[in-house]
Amino acid sequence: MRLTLEQPVRARLVSPGFPDLPIRPTLRYSATEPFAVRIDFPAHVSEDERGATWTFARSLLEEGLDAAAGIGDVRIEPCGRSRTIIEFHAPHGMAAIRFAAASLRRFLQRSYAVVEPGRERLGPELDHGLLSLLDGV
Fold first, then answer.
1. Nearest 5 degrees, angle CA 45-CA 25-CA 105?
2. At 130, phi and psi to the nearest 5?
3. Distance between CA 58 and CA 111 in Å, rounded?
4. Which of 4, 25, 34, 80 is a Cys-bridge partner for 115, taking CB atoms 3.0 to 4.6 Å apart?
């Protein structure tokens, strides 16, 4: 069984007043962090030219493919029938990235082969710690 998943995708950085910039981020998912999805952006689209990684909930990606989702740093919403926009909000600004919805859906489906929805575990240490905190409640 695979414990990690990496999928390069085509996307476009959308900036009002400027032509869209094609980019190739990589989507990542790991069984060691079963609730999280990561997107790695290449160096040429980051402010410091060192690349950037954003992490957010896999459930947010799932929700955002069908309807607007997210209220924090990452917001996802459909853009027509075949595209999805993911907005990344940071103190120094916001970036909007347009993806083919089919690529994101394919990645999400592939992540389910790594860890099925509902079978995510936080790890034995955290599970044990939560049980002791809740004291059988």
1. 140
2. -65, -40
3. 9
4. 34
**What does the block give as tokens for 40?**
């790695």
Spatial neighbors of 32 by CB under 8 A, at least 6 apart, are: 3
pLDDT in tens, 124-135: 545 555 555 666
Residue with tokens 């459909």: 78
C-alpha to C-alpha distance for 40 and 43, rounded to whole angstroms? 9
The CA distances from residue 31 to 39, 57, 100, in Å, are 16, 13, 25
- What DSSP line would sit under the chain, residue for residue? --SEEEEE--EEEE-TTS--EEE--EEEEETTSTTEEEEEEPGGGSTTSS-EEEEEEHHHHHHHTTS-B-SSSEEEEEETTTEEEEEEEETTEEEEEEEEHHHHHHHHHHHHHHS-TT-----HHHHHHHHHHHTT-
- The ranges of the chain with pLDDT < 50 are 125
Residue (of 99, 100, 101) closest to 88 by Cα position = 99
Pairing of strands 93-100, 83-90: antiparallel
